Amino acid sequence: MVKNYMKIQIGYEIVYDCAKTTPMILALHPYPNLETPDCLITIPAISQITNYIDNYGNKLSRLVLPEGETKIFSNLIVNDSGISDLENVSAGQVPVEELPDEILIYLLGSRYCETDLFYDLAWDLFGKLPAGWECVQGICDFVNKQIKFDYYEACATRTAWDAYNEKIGVCRDYAHLAIAFCRALNIPARYCTGYLSDIGEPKPHGIMDFAAWIEVYLDGGWYIFDPRNNKRRIGRIPLAKGRDAADVPISNSFGLNKLKEFKVWADEYIEN
């Protein structure tokens, strides 16, 4: 049932095993609308954790993990509208010459989105669609059918071009492929990662993980599109946004380590 307002309990529990002290950068801070204070807790306790804002406006944390196992966890309550992602089917494409300067970077190729490889294909597939919302939705429809989702086929080095040809992947691969198509058509697009709840979705639910989707710049604003699920969803809480996954990894470590445990949750919070 769609609500006008709700609270969502979000959090994670991640355990790393480091061969020696290891510097790390974490992108685990949700965007605003927090009900409870934002916190990042470690066991054993790490006293020196500093936060900063990166070039894309994301809040990141710097810390050094000790040798051995370290648990990193958080449990928060966020306020949410309770309604699905905004839809604006009349939103039009902005001509390149009219785009704000800070948006232009989202037209360029990046580590996982080889825009130059997609120019001819993008125009062949989508060039006759009306520019704007309908074109982007057409891209998402295509990507959703082109890639078969397989959680166990995740690959850290798979690019948009790889995903197009291999026809398999996870949510980040759907996002990268859709972004590459959009940029090839002169539509600014950026990569987003964060929590995506199963609120309002039929059971059984899949394995909970951090999700990836895209935002596309139309009519002077950013709009959410989700080529993996290809529908408007409730309870989408971003952690970081950038050109592609290379800009916004959940963790970026500078030393040898193993991921021992990984849990994520995003559930409606019902007050007693």
From TrEMBL:
Transmembrane segments: none annotated. Pfam families: Transglut_core. Residues 163-229 form the Transglutaminase-like domain. It comes from the Bacteria. This is Transglutaminase-like superfamily protein. It comes from Francisella frigiditurris.
